[in-house]
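Researcher: Here's a chain I'd like modeled. Treat it as a single chain, no partners, no ligands.
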Amino acid sequence: MPFVTVTALSHPGLVRDHNEDSLAVGPWTLCGTVTENPQTLGFPLGSPLVVAVADGMGGQPAGEVASGLVVRHLAALGPTLDSEQAVRNALDVCNQAVYGAAERDPDLTAMGTTVAGVVVLAKELLVFNVGDSRVLDVTSTHATPHQLSVDDSPPLEPGQRTTPVVTQALGGASRFNAITPHVNTAPLAPGERYLVCSDGLTDPVPEDALDAVLRSHDGGRAAFELWKSAIEAGGPDNITLALIGVVD
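Model: Modeled as a single isolated chain. Structure tokens:
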């Protein structure tokens, strides 16, 4: 019987003084903390399985509070996420929850977070994001990693490696802003692999370097080598990733 493996880690990198990223894998959440080693979990294929990375917005207060709030909501709602509309509704709930928490505590005003993830169903994958965290199809039969999410950020200028602007987030403003989540469906089959990650991985590590790691390694070793690549590139931001595999 096919099953799903998810290998994940979260680390502050070398520049940030704390981790504002959070992670959900099914009912399991990791919020604003650090994993010393990649953790691998296994799940039967069938019931909806949510895997999500939320990246708290730097330069604004309490990014780790916002990201943790979002992944805990997604983990709780995960078993009900069986359609694109259910995912959109869940992300609207998350957005309202972030703004609601900020309204109750002035210290949290304008906190915000991006989010990206997948819901693994029996025969398909629901892909979602708000902001610039990413979902990549990294199945080895593809020529290069294929981005399934849609960045909410302006296009890069020639020679520019990163963009400082995110055009859409959960929360992130002093007054409520509605969101338009990116949600789409992709077919699912044994042997396929997907990467959900914050921009602390994809900004410093070029796509060809990601591809080289993923073609050479699997599971925990692949996750470790991806993290190592970001650290060797300076570790300028928090690094959170989840590598998802469908095994026959």
